[in-house]
Design goal:
Layout lengths: L12 H12 L2 E9 L2 E15 L2 E7 L5 E5 L3 E9 L1
Antiparallel strand pairs: 1-2, 1-5, 2-3, 3-4
Length: 84
């Protein structure tokens, strides 16, 4: 039997708008998130926002140019960096 992921908790609308703007302006973000019991901090390139399985995700390119999906409620903090 597979375990269900934790219930999704939507991101604050102001923060969501900041993510949308970073995507439109092609700005890198310094992103702090929690995943698999560990805290991560990385500069990423946000690409798009998606909804799937009743949760919202950030599609991003990491420092090694890998395409990744990050569930928004795992993001602890983010700050604007330089344009791409």
């Amino acid at each position: 039997m597979t375990s269900k992921p934790p219930t999704y908790s939507p991101m604050d609308c102001e923060q969501y708008s900041r993510l949308e703007l970073a995507i439109l302006q092609r700005r890198r973000l310094r992103l702090h998130w929690v995943g698999k019991g560990m805290s991560h901090i990385e500069v990423v390139s946000p690409q798009d926002l998606r909804t799937r399985r009743h949760a919202e995700y950030l599609l991003l390119r990491d420092g090694m140019n890998r395409r990744r999906f990050l569930r928004l409620d795992r993001i602890m903090h983010f700050a604007d960096r330089t344009p791409l």
